[in-house]
Every structure is written in structure tokens, then in C-alpha cells.
Design a protein that fits this description.
Layout (H helix, E strand, L loop, with lengths): L2 H12 L13 E6 L3 H10 L5 E7 L3 H11 L2 E2 L3 H5 L5 E4 L6 H10 L3 E5 L6 H14 L3 E4 L6 H12 L5 E9 L18 H17 L2 E10 L5 E10 L3 E7 L8 E5 L2 E5 L8 E6 L4 E5 L8 H13 L9 H18 L7
Parallel strand pairs: 1-2, 1-4, 2-3, 4-5, 5-6, 7-10
Antiparallel strand pairs: 7-11, 8-9, 9-10, 11-12, 12-13, 13-14
Helix pairs in contact: 5-6, 6-10, 8-10
């Protein structure tokens, strides 16, 4: 083992007092980077995850971090380095996507497992650097893509295993949210905002989850006054079929999803990315209604999965794989290239 690998292993061991892998009931100690809406939702969801607790939080602005820490029973770290040295086992990155790769690589190199808010990075090149850091540090990295961990999504998968709809060849999904304030981070060019990375990444997940890797992506869209994409429509060819996707920050677009096979189809009712109800229709006339309400804020399901992976010593999720994250961001890269959109952080 070379000197750098030895240093990584030493740092990793220091952050893992339970041994590697973790014990079945070891409490996973979490830190959070960022104090925005999704960070609050994560902290609220974490309270519903067995044997996990929030330890520390850090934000570039001290006051919001202190308020956040008081609300959720944690400590406010003085710096990002202090957060990494606070005894945490895992970190949730809840900042805008322009900083995801930086925080993820730093945490992984410090021997800390990383659950990173979607999109994992701004582009595929950044994602490759993060994955390389995860492999070098022998630590777990996962993009926080919540839908596949929801009870309804898993119930649907189990139902189709017993009563399939044939070969699936079409995925159609979209969401567009009107009335986004001018100062909202989603409209920030400097922070790599825009509809494709903020919203479209969900639809891209659905496409690759059911149809496989993208082979070709055709995109129409428009850029808004701040320079980010405010609407985009994608037609993509995949290994198993075609996807029709849209995302926007100005129009009011319905948020359901449609999946078609040779023997039936599925509608995941809105909001499909927080799935609770689906309808399966078959060519023989049968209709099956599936319901599975979710609780705990919704992010608890992916977080519990992540904690279980840490305890088992896994370095990659079998559900939200590194390859799947790469396929998604490759779609976003192709779509942004078609619109001529490149961010300062690239």
C-alpha cells in the first residue's frame, strides 16, 4: 500500500469506531452540508431512520447553521473541515450542484461515506472524479435519488415481477413548476441551476431505470433571462426503448409518469417522484390499482438503505448504482450541449 493509500485508510479507520463493516445496530452519525429546504427535510426524515442520528451541520453562513442545529438537535460546525472532523460517519450534501463534487471528494478523502443530493454532480467528468475518490478511499458514495426506495415503487416492481406488462419500450414523464422567484437558486447560472439539473434529473432516472443506458438524446428548449434553461423537452433512445421527457421552471406541467409495455401500461400518479399510487392496465382488460402511502418525509427510505449499506461494508448501492448516476448525467450533458448551456464551474 502506498503512502497516500495508507493515509486514507488511517483517516477512514479513525471515523469508524465500530469497525468495518459496522455492527447491525450501530448508530450512524450524520453531518449535513447546507441548511436549505432539502436539508431540513433530510433532518426530519432522519428522525425516522433506526439507529441513525444527526450530529453536526455546516453552512457558509453561520447564523442559519446555528438555527438549523438548534431545531434538529445537532451542533453547528465552525468550518467544513471541522464538520469532517466532528466524528461523523456519513455526510449528506444538500447544497446547490455546483459544489457537490468538491464537498463529496473532500469528505470521501477524509474517510466519510457520502450521500449526495441529486444531481450528484454538474457533469459526467465531475462524477468520474467523485467515483474515483470513493474507490480510492474505499467509502460508500450514492446519489440521493429517492423514488426507487419509496414503498409504492418497490410494490410496483414486486407486482410486475409476478404479473408483468411484457417488454417495456416507452417511458413518458415530466414536471414543470411555474412562478419560481427570480432570486431562487434554481435560476442561478453561477450555481448551475436550471430545469434539467433541478427537475429533469428525476425524469432521466425514470428513463434509465426502465429502459437502460441512453444511446441518443434529442433536445429542444429555451434559456431564461439568467442564462439557465427554463424549459426542455427530450426524446431519448435507450437500450430497451424510447423516453419522452420534459422539465421546466415556468409552465404548469402535470407530474405523473407513464410506462408502456407490450402487454400493458403503468401510470404512476402525480407527483410520481413522491410515488404513492399507481394504476396498471393490461391488454386483456384487467386494471390493478396499487397504493402505498409514504411517511417520515420520504427521504428516510433512501437514508435507511444507505445506512444498511454502510453496516454491510458495501461501497456501492445495488439500486442507485454509479453506472445509473453516470447514465443520467450523460443525458443531462447531452441536453445542455444541445442548448449551448455551460456553467462557470465546468
Amino acid at each position: 500500500m502506498d503512502d497516500k493509500a495508507t493515509q486514507v485508510a488511517t483517516r477512514a479507520a479513525a471515523h469508524n469506531p465500530f469497525g468495518d463493516p459496522f455492527g447491525d445496530h450501530a448508530a450512524i452519525r450524520w453531518g449535513i452540508v447546507g441548511t436549505g429546504r432539502i436539508a431540513h427535510r433530510f433532518a426530519q426524515s432522519l428522525a425516522h431512520v433506526p439507529h441513525a442520528r444527526l450530529t453536526a451541520v455546516w453552512s457558509r453562513r453561520r447564523a442559519p447553521a446555528e438555527t438549523f442545529a438548534q431545531q434538529h438537535g445537532a451542533q453547528a460546525a465552525d468550518s467544513f473541515d471541522a464538520l469532517l472532523q466532528s466524528g461523523i460517519d456519513a455526510i449528506y450534501i444538500a447544497t446547490m450542484q455546483d459544489s457537490h463534487a468538491h464537498y463529496a471528494c473532500a469528505a470521501l478523502e477524509a474517510g466519510i461515506h457520502v450521500l449526495c443530493e441529486k444531481p450528484a454532480t454538474v457533469n459526467a467528468a465531475q462524477l468520474d472524479r467523485v467515483i474515483d475518490s470513493a474507490r480510492a478511499s474505499q467509502r460508500l458514495f450514492m446519489e440521493a435519488m429517492k423514488p426507487p426506495f419509496y414503498p409504492l415503487y418497490q410494490k410496483l416492481r414486486a407486482h410486475l415481477a409476478d404479473d408483468p406488462i411484457g417488454d417495456i419500450g416507452l417511458v413518458r414523464a415530466g414536471c414543470s413548476v411555474p412562478g419560481v422567484p427570480d432570486d431562487h437558486p434554481s435560476l442561478s447560472f453561477e450555481q448551475a441551476g436550471g430545469a434539467l439539473l433541478d427537475i429533469g434529473i428525476y425524469e432521466m432516472f425514470l428513463a434509465v431505470d426502465w429502459l437502460g443506458a441512453p444511446l441518443d438524446v434529442q433536445t429542444l428548449g429555451r434559456l431564461g433571462p439568467t442564462g439557465v434553461d427554463t424549459f426542455a423537452s427530450l426524446n431519448s433512445q435507450h437500450e430497451k426503448g424510447i423516453a419522452q421527457l420534459f422539465c421546466g421552471l415556468d409552465l404548469f406541467g402535470k407530474g405523473d409518469a407513464f410506462i408502456a409495455g407490450t402487454q400493458g401500461n403503468i401510470t404512476i400518479h402525480e407527483n410520481w417522484w413522491n410515488p404513492a399510487r399507481a394504476t396498471v392496465r393490461y391488454v386483456d382488460g384487467r386494471v390493478v390499482e396499487l397504493e402505498a402511502p409514504f411517511g417520515g418525509g420520504g427521504l428516510n427510505y433512501e437514508t435507511e438503505h444507505f445506512c444498511d449499506l454502510i453496516r454491510s461494508g458495501a461501497l456501492e448501492s445495488p439500486v442507485m448504482t454509479h453506472a445509473k448516476s453516470r447514465q443520467m448525467i450523460e443525458m443531462a450533458d447531452a441536453a445542455r450541449a444541445a442548448l449551448g448551456l455551460r456553467f462557470p464551474c465546468e
